[in-house]
Every structure is written in C-alpha cells, then in structure tokens.
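Ticket 4471: requesting a sanity check on a complex prediction with magnesium ion. Repro inputs:
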Amino acid sequence: MNFEIKLDSVSLKLISLFESIGVSAYAVGGCVRDSLSGRPVSDIDLAVSCTPDNTKKILDKNNIRYIETGIQHGTVTAIAGGRAYEITTFRSDGKYSDNRRPDSVSFVTDIYTDLARRDFTVNAMAYNPSEGLIDIFCGIDDIKSKTIRAVGDADTRFMEDSLRILRALRFASVLDFEIEQKTEQSILKKYPLLRNVAKERITEELIKLLSGKGASRIIRKYSQIILYVSGHLKTGFDVKNGENLCKIFDVLADETDIRVAAFILINSCPIDILNHSIGPVDTEIVKKMTSSLRLRSATVQNTNRLLTHFDTEEPRDRVGVKKLMFSFGAQFYIQLLELRLAVFRVMEDKNRCDAVKKVLAIVNDIMDKHEPYSIAQLEINGNDLKALGCSGKRIGVLLEEVLEMVIEQRLENNRDSIIKYVTEHI
Ligand code: ATP
Ligand code: MG
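Returned structure tokens:
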C-alpha cells in the first residue's frame, strides 16, 4: 500500500499560511482516507487550531475569498483555484440530546480532541507535511484490513448521532469495506434511532450507499436497515424488490444516476420473473419518487429521463441504433441499454438480454470506427451553411436532414457531397 498523501498546491499553501503564524493546520477526514486507500480525492477539508474569526482574518490578509458556511460549528469555506476548502476549527462536541446534533460545540486547541469526535477510525486521521500522519485510532490498519470501525464506544457514538449508523453502511458500500463486529452489533441494535434523522440527511447517505461498489452486498447484509430507512422515506421498498435491486446492482456500473434510476424503477414497477415482465413505467410515480428523494436537480433530470425512456425497444438495424444515439446522445443511450440489460437479466429474459447486448456491441463498434451519428461529426457545420446563404432555423433543420441522409448512407460524409446537397436544398 502506498502511504503517500498527496495534497494539491492550494491546500499545501493554506496549511503553510496558518503554520507560519503559529496556528496548527491539517488535512483531515475523507481526503486523508481516500488518499491512503488509493482512491481519487474529491474535497480537501482542513482543521485548524485558531478560531473561525482568526481563520477569516488570515484569509482576508492573504486576499483569499471565503464563505461563512457554518460559523457556529467553526467552518469557513475558502474558495481558491476554482475549488472550495472547508476550514474548521478543532472542536469538541457537547452533549447530544436529539440523537443527531450536539447541543453545543466548543473550540479546542489540540487535534487529538478533534479527531476523537469523528465517526469512524478511517475518517479520524489528520495529515500535514511537517508532522506527517496523525493516526491515534489506528485508521491506517482499518484501511489495510478494509474495516469500518466506530471511534470509541459504538453504542455511545450511534446514540449521540444516529445518522452515523447509515454513514457506516454508506462507507462500507462506497469503499467496499466490512463493518467491524462490535460496530455492527451496535448498528443492528440502534438503527431504529434513524427515525430521528431529517429525511434529507438520510437520502443523502442512502443515495451514496446505492452508488457504492459494495452496494448489493451491504443491502443484502443489512436489509432490515435499508427497509427501515426506506419505510421512513416512503419509497415502497420491500424484501422482494430488495433482492431484485441487488441482482441489478451486481451487474450495473456504480454511477449515481443509473443506480438511483434502478432503485426507483424497482420500487415503482415490480418485476414478475415468472412472466419475464415488468410493468410499464409510470412517469407520475417516478416524478413523485425523484422529488421525495430530494435528489440534486441534475440527478433528477437524468434519472427521470432514464425511466421515461426505459421502455425504448432495441432498434432492428445499425441505422436505427445511430438514430437513437443521435436523439439520446451516446453516453445516455449506453446508460439506458445497461439499465435495460441489468433488468432483463433479473427477469431472466434471455432473448431481450441478447437483443440489448447486440445493440451495445453495435454502439461500441460505431464509436470505435468513428461512424457519424451526431451533427458535430459532420464534415460541415452551421457556419458553412451560413456562408452558403442559409439562415435562421433552417440551418438546424438542414443539418439534421444531412445527418439523417449520412446515417442512412444516402449521402457521403464529405464536404463536397454535403455542400452539393445543401446548395440544391437551400
Ligand atoms: P465524502 O468523500 O463523501 O465527502 P467525507 O469523509 O469527507 O466523505 P463528510 O460527510 O464530508 O465525509 O464528512 C467529513 C468528515 O467529518 C468525515 O470524514 C468525518 O471525520 C467527519 N464527520 C462527518 N459527519 C460526521 C458525523 N455525523 N459524526 C462524526 N464525524 C463526522
Ligand atoms: Mg467530504
């Protein structure tokens, strides 16, 4: 395993700015965990020993823009190099009386106390270049053995904040880790406390869980928790469609949109394996579910689109495939085919599986051979048409017409042939 922690130049600069005036600063949490486990690092969060007011002063002095994203919890978000860096003062959480949030937080000056408030050992490590890795809870060992383990006493930690129960499942799914025995026992005992957590926060963790590499393993293993949470969110999830979902996830890419689409599809449109059938997708139910899951708007859009077009039959020939690649966009069409293939596998419908596989092979072949299926691939563009005297909406219409001719092999995709055709049809 490679123990190197790579931070970007902005976070390194931020750390050294703080250190140059005697303030301790570390990269913490997810970025250290992901870096140590060889995963791509998304956000870099920093923890510092000074108060949020002093953080603001230091950023002001160095002309670094920031947003006050959570001052009461000690967080200021610096914006630099087009990225956001959460900078949070070391803190210790007070008493928890609602199973979710501390009644109060107090700022502290040592990193050890700050690490002790964190949820899992793999999330409770800190790093800076001068001191190296600070790992008082042996997070590195848990990364090596792929283990999610609560920091401290699991019962206490889950009673403080029950969202951590779902976070444990989420990290186990995304990182493809196992949950350590004591932590697991506590999870199985305490999960009804999740009823006290806001639906938005549950959804956020659930979606990440669904999108993880280990999702089907975790959903199978902790099905009662997923059922409990789904009941809380009123998603219509039950044991039968749970198993179908896992079978779909076993073969589906771990991408959020397609996983969420499968989740909604399974919950709104149960599969009948005996009859190899799945009911038509009810777009009204889909809309209701995407909105009750409170997804990000891009995910809602793509999920709705995947489900609206789920019933699209496979075209009979290469020309038909290209036309769908054009109207859907190749990337979306591949997602749609992959979703159909996964669902047909669960339906044990061999004929339809074979039909989708054949189309997927054609799509890949078209892309490999750079055969045109989009306007951007034509040897002529809108400006060329303008130069030929075409204007307004007619440009788009004519380009589509040309593409259709090229796809149907009634016109060659070379400038001269297209110009000749366009001149005759302007
Ligand atoms: P991701 O890559 O999904 O953002 P992350 O580890 O950064 O993963 P966040 O939810 O952004 O997860 O939280 C950042 C860090 O804050 C965690 O790594 C953990 O140390 C701490 N943390 C977050 N939520 C909790 C919680 N509910 N209880 C204790 N510590 C938490
Ligand atoms: Mg994060």
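Notes from triage: The mean pLDDT is 92. Leaving this open until the requester confirms.
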